Amino acid sequence: MTESMTTNRLSLTDNAAAQLAAAPADLRRSATLRLHNGVGLRPLPELTETILRECWQGRLQRPFWLDLASPTPADLQAVAGLFGFHPLTVEDALIPEHRPKIDEHEEYLFMVFQSIAGLSDETVLPAVGVGHCATSRLAAYLGVGFLVTIHDRAFAPVEEVAAIVDARDTTIDHRLDLVLHAIVDRMIDQVFPVLADVEDRIQEIEARIFTESDQDVLPTVLKTKRELMTLRRLMGLQREMLLRLSRREDLPFIEPKTAIYFRDVYDHAIRLEENCAILIELATNVAEAHLAVASRRTNEVMKFLTIFSTIWMPLTFIVGVYGMNFDHMPEIKIWWFYPFLWVVMIGIVVGMLLFFRRKKWL
């Protein structure tokens, strides 16, 4: 049994090496390896299967951080095969809309984090991604002496952390969990200005519905509400993940000192979830206010039409009576009766208007 498992592991490693050799150019374009050399971190100019194998074998003495930006499935499968990552984690890492999760394996933790990428000009929140929100995804493998991160290109949190680490020439030794914390912290914090912008836009819509009739208000507000609910679910899932990381529940790859920092990120996630709940309630109130204003405007129109029709009813009756063709209508031959009839009709209109005003219907 042991010999069979060893043979399968060797064949898997050989396949990974073959895949790395077959497409080195793509992997070099998508990957950045930062290796601890006893002084600091330095990105390597070239990335080969030999370098990755040496990094993996010497990870206890020289921790490394391998960052993959939009890798192809073949590239990620090759790296996973070389490092012994489970194939199911590779599948989860490549799914853009995968929900946040944390899986514990024997030699590493596999985590998926989600954050919103930003705003678009068309809607309050972007309309592409998980649910109705455009999201940015980070998949991470964290173990003793290694950190592997997978994300889309132009991922600001990773770029910022890499720049800080390189600029400060910071040694990481065995503290790669701190690097992961710094990335996740920036992922969570970048949501705050987005929600602030969403709140400003909702308030602008709320002010506009009382001054002008906009038929696009309700669809926009309801779409925003759905997007906020999606974001709230994402933050709720990540809040549970961060709680586990902060408490180090059966997570041997998180140091006690780092767990305190994850607790701070956990507090930020709670604030984001609460802000989402407040904005959802605000969007609901705006939608209800829009419906109330629309109903009020409809009632004003119906009131005007009803009063107008009510005033014309007696006039129509009088005109209808004298529009009939009778031979014997004595008042028709009286010369003053026609102007008198006009006085009567005008008096009816004025009297009804005064009556409506007294009843406060006008």
Structural class: alpha+beta
Number of strands: 7
- Mind telling me which CATH architecture of the largest domain this is? 2-Layer Sandwich
Largest sheet composition? 7 strands, mixed
Strand order of the largest sheet: 2-1-3-7-6-5-4
Question: What's the alpha carbon Rg, rounded to whole Å?
Answer: 35 Å
- Overall CATH class of the largest domain: Alpha Beta
CATH superfamily of the largest domain: CorA soluble domain-like
Fraction of residues in β-strands = 5-15%
Bin the helical content: 55-70%
Number of helices: 11
Number of domains: 2
How far apart are the first and last residues' alpha carbons, in Å? Answer: 92 Å
The CATH topology of the largest domain comes to Beta Polymerase, domain 2
What general outline do the C-alpha atoms trace? rod-shaped
Oligomer: single chain
How would you describe what is shown here?
With 362 residues, the protein is an alpha+beta fold. The chain folds into 2 domains: 2-294, 2-Layer Sandwich (Beta Polymerase, domain 2); 295-358, Methane Monooxygenase Hydroxylase, Chain G, domain 1, CATH 1.20.58.340. The chain contains 11 helices and 7 strands. It has helices at 2-22, 24-30, 49-57, 73-83, 87-94, 156-168, 176-189, 191-208, 217-247, 256-322, 337-358; strands spanning 31-36, 41-43, 64-69, 101-104, 108-116, 135-143, 146-151. The chain has a 7-stranded mixed β-sheet, with helices on both faces. Strand 1 (31-36) and strand 2 (41-43) form a beta hairpin. Helix 1 (2-22) runs antiparallel to helix 4 (73-83). The longest helix has 67 residues, at 256-322.
